[in-house]
Amino acid sequence: MKQEREEIQEQLSSFGARLRELRLQRGLTLQELAAQSGLSKAFLSRLESGDRQASISAALTLSKIFRVSLASLFESPVTGGLCTVIRAAEVVEKSANGLKYAPLSNADRFFNVRPMRVKVPPSRRGSEHYRHEGEEWIYVLHGKLTLSLAGKTYELEEGDAAHFESHLPHRLIARGGREAEILVVAAPDWSRPTSPVFNERRSIPASGFLALPQGKPDHSITAESGRKGGNKK
């Protein structure tokens, strides 16, 4: 009987961890998920902590919101082994500050790099440059791009890549009046804390990324675009 109770609690904890993982992956707060699902914020919080058991109706509702199978809701996020697979149907594109982006991995599964697909529109306004600890690698899938980095510019086209230290002020600018689609791989620097005088700036909010490993600071990577026509301000 004791073993049975332990197995049930383990299953509840697994469901809660998976639910939290999916919610963070899509950049949703508990309040936002409550509004979408019709379930209360308090109930969702207790589901994530493993204190409550989800009804079939609640589990079906959540699986439809996250666009995953019902069975996958009960998969433990810790028992995925050495490989994490992100299915195409699970990738959710979001927008922030004129950019469209989609995380392509689970940052809370003991991984250090953060890959994203980012679309840089030619019409995005502003000229601000961004900086944060770590390094960044970008690869141009489609379109033409100008990388403005620490006072220099680098012209990139389809198939080109660039790798740089992201503490340097940088901005990506779409050229030729067309949207540029790129892969961005961020590698936050966990070896040293951010200096209090270091002024981090990012275009994609922290909530747009998947959760970080517990106890590690958030120095997320960002990708930046320029204004219409690819002219830098």
Keywords:
233 residues, alpha+beta, 434 Repressor (Amino-terminal Domain), Jelly Rolls, 2 domains, six-stranded antiparallel β-sheet, three-stranded antiparallel β-sheet, 4 helices, 9 strands, 23% strand, elongated, disordered C terminus
Question: Could you walk me through the main structural features you see in this protein, from its secondary elements to its overall organization?
Answer:
The chain has 233 residues and is α+β, with helices and mostly antiparallel strands. It folds into two domains: 2-74, Orthogonal Bundle (434 Repressor (Amino-terminal Domain)), CATH 1.10.260.40; 93-230, Jelly Rolls, CATH 2.60.120. Helix content is 22%, strand content 23%. The chain is built from four helices and nine strands; from the N terminus they run ααααβββββββββ. The strands form two sheets. It has a six-stranded antiparallel sheet with strand order 1-2-3-9-4-7, with no helix packed on it. A hairpin with a 2-residue loop joins strand 1 and strand 2. Helix 1 (2-25) packs across helix 3 (41-49). Mean pLDDT is 76; it is low at 190-194 and 206-233.
